[in-house]
UniProtKB/TrEMBL annotation:
Pfam families: Rubis-subs-bind, SET. This is SET domain-containing protein. InterPro entries: Rubisco_LSMT_subst-bd, Rubisco_LSMT_subst-bd_sf, SET_dom, SET_dom_sf, SETD3_SETD6_MTase, SETD6_SET. PROSITE patterns: SET. The keyword Chaperone does not apply. The keyword S-adenosyl-L-methionine applies.
């Protein structure tokens, strides 16, 4: 009960702080609510019917946390100067901070300032724990099975960056980073992980003035290449998100000169949650970045097909030794060969009001995969002409290799599609295990749909499209 009271008090303090900001506005038709019972933290709902194109809230640019609003860059100009060369703990030149690492350092600085930071009420409503795989145990990660997600977590790489670039800056400027001397290196690395995950989940990419003309109409997008101006935007990150913007509403973030606004895309009924849109992410990526999955994002699920799996299927189908495949590879331009291919549905763009334009359809195997297999078959034909006498036989082999590749990939998952469906009916699964099962189940569903393309072809239904229910 006490925890619930504190949660509400922090919400109230944050809202009061936000409303006190010069240039900020918060519609009286919405309110921040406690959605922890749905594992959604805080959210924003409509308190009465809201018409389309209504401004929900407005955020002054000076309230955003970034390199332009924090005083840290002025205190440590050499660290944030793009022309300078930073030094690591061994005195060696280390890479200049990118937008992500710069914002992590600023977030650590502001967090350690405590009450002296103008953003203290905002930090109080940011999550202290995350459900992203970055923080999972090995047993939790094992539940992802053959999903490519596990190879994209990047925890060790992130920690290496924290130790080599951020920790030396903090330790050599303890007078700037308040109370940092009271924290061990491991505690500061843990804080860097927390702030990095906060940025991964909530930060927006803010355009510079010179980039304004090139900015897309959709406004803010995430920065993942380290080149853009990133910022933490109070109130915008209170909005939760879904693929169809919760079916009836979405908050659309636009750039203004001195402020940023959230606007309803279509009518919102009283009591409905107002949802943002993070993009057409598969559940695997949604889990990696934000720590949750949703049914609606299942339409965007993908399966990564390693070329090694296809090579194995190709060699088995033609009954040729590995050295024949290697000989074919040597005759091709290795720089043009792909290592991984992405199987995905044709989903189309969402409607302007945030709804789906139509069902998601799996129409064919990845085109680049088919072309690469054809290139190998052409090479094999030169070495073993009897194996591929004509185009009809080549197309038949291509189809069989595609199907066998899918079956090989499917066999890498220890449990079946049916077993996972049954498993999800259990009520004793932890949140992390449940999300892992939902991710791998979505991938198995897509593999099933891809296999059906070839199975329908063998039943004289070639070209039949497979539609999803999402």
């Amino acid at each position: 009960m006490a925890q619930g009271v504190e949660f509400g008090q922090r919400t109230d303090s944050f809202l009061s702080w936000f409303k006190s900001l010069e240039g900020a506005s918060f519609s009286d038709a919405i309110q921040i609510v406690d959605l922890r019972s749905k594992n959604a933290g805080r959210g924003i709902v409509a308190t009465r019917d809201i018409p389309a194109d209504t401004t929900l809230f407005e955020i002054p640019r000076k309230a955003i946390i970034n390199v332009q609003t924090s005083e840290l860059p002025s205190k440590l100009p050499a660290v944030f100067d793009p022309e300078s060369e930073a030094m690591d703990v061994d005195g060696d030149v280390s890479p200049q901070l990118d937008s992500w690492s710069s914002l992590i350092l600023i977030m650590i600085y502001e967090f350690l300032r405590g009450q002296e930071s103008q953003w203290k009420p905002y930090f109080d409503v940011l999550p202290e724990e995350f459900n992203t795989p970055m923080f999972w145990s090995d047993s939790d990660l094992d539940a992802l099975q053959a999903s490519a997600t596990r190879g994209k977590i990047g925890k060790s790489e992130a920690e290496e960056m924290f130790r080599s670039q951020l920790l030396p800056v903090i330790r050599s400027n303890q007078g700037v980073f308040m109370s940092s001397e009271n924290h061990t290196d491991e505690e500061l690395i843990g804080l860097a992980h927390r702030m990095g995950s906060t940025i991964m989940a909530y930060a927006f990419d803010l355009e510079n003035d010179e980039d304004r003309e090139e900015e897309e109409e959709d406004g803010w997008v995430e920065d993942r290449d380290g080149k853009s101006l990133m910022g933490m935007v109070p109130m915008a990150d209170i909005l939760n998100a879904d693929a169809e913007f919760n079916a009836t509403c979405q908050a659309h973030i636009n750039h203004g000169e001195e402020s940023l606004t959230a606007t309803s895309l279509r009518p919102i009924k009283a009591g409905e949650e107002i949802l943002n849109y993070y993009g057409p992410h598969p559940n695997s990526e949604l889990l990696r970045r934000y720590g949750y999955v949703t049914e609606r994002h299942g339409r965007y699920d993908v399966v990564e097909i390693p070329w090694g799996v296809v090579e194995e299927a190709l060699a088995a189908q033609l009954s040729v030794p590995a050295d024949v495949i290697s000989a074919c590879k040597e005759k091709l331009d290795e720089e043009e060969l792909e290592d991984v291919f992405v199987l995905e549905r044709d989903t189309g763009e969402p409607n302007s009001d945030g709804t789906f334009a139509g069902p998601a359809e799996l129409k064919e195997m990845p085109g680049d995969l088919q072309e690469q297999v054809k290139a190998f078959l052409k090479g094999i034909k030169k070495l073993k002409p009897d194996l591929i006498p004509d185009k009809r036989k080549r197309d038949e082999i291509l189809s069989d290799v595609m199907l066998n590749s899918l079956q090989l990939l499917e066999s890498r998952y220890p449990t079946s599609y049916i077993e996972d469906r049954i498993l999800l009916k259990r009520t004793d699964l932890s949140d992390r295990i449940r999300m892992a099962v939902e991710v791998r189940l979505g991938e198995k569903q897509l593999i099933q749909e891809a296999k059906a393309l070839f199975q329908s072809s063998s039943n004289e239904n070639a070209g039949k499209r497979v539609k999803t229910s999402t």
